[in-house]
Amino acid sequence: MPGDRVPVVTPAIHGILADGGTVITATHRLARTLRLEWDRSQAASGLQVWPSADILPLDAWLRRGWDAALVLGTPAGARRLLAEEESRLLWRQVIDTWARRNNRGASDVGVIVPLARAGWRLAETWGISLAALQDAADSDDARAFASWASDYQRLLQDGQWLDAIGALHALAADFAAGLLPVPRQIGWLAFDPWPPAYATLNRAL
Prior knowledge:
By secondary structure, this protein is mainly alpha-helical. The chain has helices at about 10-20, 30-45, 60-70, 85-100, 110-125, 130-135, 140-160, 165-175, 195-205, and strands at about 20-25, 55, 80, 160, 185-190. Strands 2-1-5 form a three-stranded parallel beta sheet. It has a two-stranded parallel ribbon with strand order 3-4.
């Protein structure tokens, strides 16, 4: 009927989960919805017990992959994965330092930090390098952002740390090298658009 909600557990998703595969979702909310629909579909089929479906939002799946890399001693596991709060603190440190170095006011750092983090995550997800950002910087704001990103990357390298997108790239390299186990099947749900970083990970898997 018009207006009916489209089910999340499509035949393709059902096949992956029934085979013991993994479904990676774009958001936490979608992961919760998919788990609920899966459990309801299992109950409706007459089952009283069933294995939990392996459904995770991307950031949680990356954390699990890094945990495996840590245990197996792969290159990705040799670096520490920062929590989101730690990444935010690192950005704040970078911007505070830049503001003092350039005699700029830092009263709006709390507003700038999430914007800078989101901007750099977009750049890394879409394959825009630091060098490309620096070359394209044609305003004071763009040059400031490129400077922050450079300092942030340097701190990550010096500390041997990974943020979320850094972990995605590092895990893709480990998977491509055959250093980590791969699920039987993998489904990606609601990733639109499909940026280069995700495509690289998918190819590695």
